Amino acid sequence: MPYAEINNTRLHIRQRGQGPVAVFVHGYPLDSTMWIDQLNGLADIRRCIAVDLRGFGRSMPVTGEPLTMEQHASDLAAVLDLVSEEQADIVGLSMGGYVALAFAELYPKRLRSLALIDTRAGADNEEGKAGRNAAVERLLADGRSAMAGGMEAGLLGPEPSPAARARLRTMIEGCAYETIIGALAGMRDRPDRTSVLDTITVPCAVMVGEFDAVTPPVEAEQMADVIADAVLTIVPRSGHLAPIENPPAVTAALRSFLSS
Ligand code: MLT
After folding, report:
1. pTM to 2 decimals?
2. In order of start, what are the domains of the chain with their CATH numbers?
3. What atom of ligand 1 comes closest to residue 27's alpha carbon?
4. Which of 19, 33, 164, 203 is the most exposed place for a label (fewest CB within 10 A)?
5. Which atom of ligand 1 is nearest to the CA of 28?
6. Is the CB of 187 under 6 A from ligand 1?
7. What is the pLDDT of residue 229?
8. 21: CA distance to ligand 1 center in Å?
9. Which of 108, 91, 101, 83 is nearest to 38 (CA)?
10. What pLDDT was estimated at residue 221?
11. b or e along 40-76 (b: 16 or more beta carbons within 10 Å of the residue's beta carbon)?
C-alpha cells in the first residue's frame, strides 16, 4: 500500500515490520524519508508507518492552501481506518509533533502512546507569525536552495554529519513551493495546545537534541514536567533533527519506550 486515497487526496505511505502500528510524522519542510533509520530499526517490534503528509514528499501536490495540523491529524486517522487499526503509537518530530498533539486532542481514544521529538505545544507568538510571512516572501524572491542554505545552520547541531546535511538538503530541495507556503500558513495559525498536555494519560516520551535551537531542551523539560509520567531523553550530538543527526540514539530511545 505505497499510496492511499483518503480525504480527497492521495498520500504516500512507507511501511516496515509487523506488530502494533506506530505512525511516524515528519517535520517541515521534510518528508517520510527522515524516519528511514527508525523504520528499519524498529520493524521487529512495530508495524512502522511513515506517512508523507498532504502535499509533502511523494503525496499528491497541493496548490498553496493552508495545511492545518487538524487536517493532517484527520488524514492520519483515515490512514488508521485504512489499515483497520483502532489505535497507534504516534511519533512526531517538530511540525509532526504539532500534528501529533492535534491528533491527541481530536482522537484521544486512538492514541496508544505518544512520542514528541524536538517540538513544542505552544502557538507561534507575533514575532514567529511575522517570521512565517517573511519566509514566504524570501522563498518566492530567492528560491528554495537559498532557503535550504539559510535553514541548515538553524536546524542542525554544531557539527552535523555529511549524511545529515545531505538528507536535510535533499528533503528541503524536494519540497514543493506550494507545500512550503501552505505549511507555513498552517503552522502560523495553529492554536496553542499546551492544555492538551494535561489530558495525556497514555505513555509519553519527550526527546530533544542537546543543541536544538528551535525547540530547546528547556522547553522539552517543561513539556515533560506537565505530562503525567513522561520520559525525557536528551539526544546527544543533535540539533533540531535528532532522528537524522543521531539515528541510533533516537531509535534506541524509541525501542526502549515502545517496549516498556
Ligand atoms: C519543523 O522542523 O517541523 C519546524 O522547525 C517547525 C516550525 O517551524 O515550527
Report:
1. 0.98
2. 3-259 (3.40.50.1820)
3. 3
4. 19
5. 3
6. yes
7. 87
8. 25
9. 91
10. 98
11. ebbeebbbbbbbbbbbbbbbeebeeebbbbebbbbbb
pLDDT at 64: 87
Gap between the Cα atoms of 54 and 167, Å rounded: 20
Does residue 28's CB lie within 6 angstroms of at least one atom of ligand 1? yes
Half-sphere CA count of 168, side-chain side, radius 13 A = 24
Helical (H) or strand (E) element with 257: helix 247-259
What pLDDT, on a 0 to 100 scale, did the predictor assign at position 127? 97
Q: How are beta strands 88-93 and 47-52 bridged, if at all?
A: unpaired
10-residue mean pLDDT series, the chain (260 residues): 93 98 98 98 98 98 96 98 97 98 98 98 98 96 92 96 97 97 98 98 98 98 95 98 98 97
Dihedral (Cα; 134, 72, 214, 257), 10-degree rounding: -170
In angstroms, the Cα distances linking 2 to 13, 37, 49, 51, 58 are 5, 18, 10, 9, 10
Ligand 1 neighbourhood includes 97 CB (under 6 angstroms): no
Tell me, using a 6 A CB cutoff, whether residue 119 lines ligand 1: no
